Structure formats: C-alpha cells, structure tokens
Amino acid sequence: MEKPKKSRRKKLILWLGIDLTVAAIVILLLHHAPARYRPATPPPDDPNGRRVHPYISHELMPTLYNNSQDRKPFEIEVDEESLNEAIAQARWREESGGIRLFSPAIAFAPGRVVLMATADIEGADFVVTVEIHPQILDDGRLNLIVESVKIGIIPITWAAKKLARDKYREQVEAGGIDLDDWRTRIAASLLNEESFEPVFPVDDKWVRLTGIDIVQGRLAARLVQVPKPKH
After folding, report:
1. 107/81 Cα distance (integer angstroms)
2. Distance of alpha carbon 225 from the chain centroid
C-alpha cells in the first residue's frame, strides 16, 4: 500500500508545481510593461503654477485656432514625443473604484492610437494598454474602434468592453449625460462603436475632421471650418 500513497504524493507535488508555475507566468505577464510604454519624466513644478506645456499653448492651439478662422481646409500634425512631454507636465491622475491611474503615455502606430497608463490596484502596479483604430467612413462619420485592451500583455478586451458598455448604459438610462455633447459622442463611439459626425468646437468656431493619417510617431488630422451644428 506504500506505493499508491507515494504515487498520489508525487502527483500532488507535480500538480502543485504546475499550478505555481502557471501562477508565476500569469503574474509576470500581468506585470509586463510594453516596450513602447515610455512616459515622459514630469518637469520640475512651475513656480507660477502653469501646467500647460508650450507645445500645446504655443504650437498646437495657435495652429488650430488660426486655421479655424478661415474656411480653407487645413492640416495639423501631432508629434508623439512632444505630446507625451505635454502630458507629463499636466501630471494627470485619475482614481475610480479603488483603481488609481497615472503616468499616461500615447504612442502613434500605423493606423492606431495606443493609450497607456500605470494602474495601481491595491498596491500592485500594472500597465494598461488600449489600442484604438479611428475610421472615417464613406459618409464622413467617424468611428473610434477599441481593438484591444490589455493588462501587461494579457488581453482583457471583451471583459473591459462589456464593463464599460454596462456603465455607459447605466448613465444614459439615468439621464445624467447630454447625448448631443461631442464628448459624449466620442465616448459612445469608443464604448459602443457608434459612428458620429466629427464636428468639434474651437473657441467660437466649429471644425470638421475630414481625414486622419497615423504613422509611426506622428498623427496628421485634416480639418475644415463648418457652421455650428444644429441639434
């Protein structure tokens, strides 16, 4: 009877070893940081309390504002490195449901916008990655398709989308959001893949996104001034 006991013990040790190995691999995968996740280092605090980077205040916004005053189509380019420096200076942080997000970064890949941030979940840090594929449809509407959501390198796309959709639906049913607001339409596109008219306010003018090209490290958006939309 000694041999069956030893056999069971060996099987138990074997399965315990397999379980521990799987657990270790999952932990490593969860804690894995994508190579393209390189958040910029925040600069020293500005003694004047300014949080807007010169790339935003002196380049992007003036280009957008000045061109939106004219009815001629124009293009605005966004550089990945400069944008991430501006994001770092803003020191963006968000907390919800006990999860704290910080150190965000954006990467531009061919046809994709990649959003990344560190999530602090009960004292453990994980990198969350969201890949978005913007599409201008034949009718001129814009759709923002969330192609993947990952923690570390483990995909959680289906679960993340379902949770986000459920929360969005709850807010809509509660009547707490303005469905005509352009920010709400962006959220609806990200969460429900609902296309929308890509018309956005720029000070007292409105512009329409007519095209978007995304290559490695750079995004180029084509825009034109349009009348204020009627809801």
Report:
1. 9
2. 27
Residue with tokens 């750079």: 218
Q: How far is CA 148 from CA 57, 98, 172, in A?
A: 32, 23, 24
Q: What 3-state DSSP class applies to 216?
A: coil
Residue 1: per-residue pLDDT: 47
Q: Of the candidates 223, 199, 196, 195, which has an alpha carbon nearest to the alpha carbon of residue 211?
A: 223
Residue whose C-alpha is closest to residue 208's, from 56, 64, 112: 64
Task: Output 13 or 157, whichever has higher pLDDT.
Answer: 157
* Contact yes or no for 101/122 (Cβ under 8 A): no
What mean pLDDT, rounded, does the chain reach? 83
Other C-beta atoms lying within 10 Å of the C-beta of residue 187: 18
pLDDT tens digits for range 160-183: 888 888 877 887 777 767 777 878
- Is residue 126's pLDDT more than 70? yes
Measured distance CA(129)–CA(151) in Å, rounded: 7
Measure the CA dihedral 53/217/115/23, to 10°.
Answer: -130
* Number of residues written out for the chain: 231
| Cα–Cα distance, 110 to 134 (Å, whole number) | 11
Structure-token match 């770092």, residue found: 88
User: 93 versus 225: which is more confidently predicted?
Assistant: 225
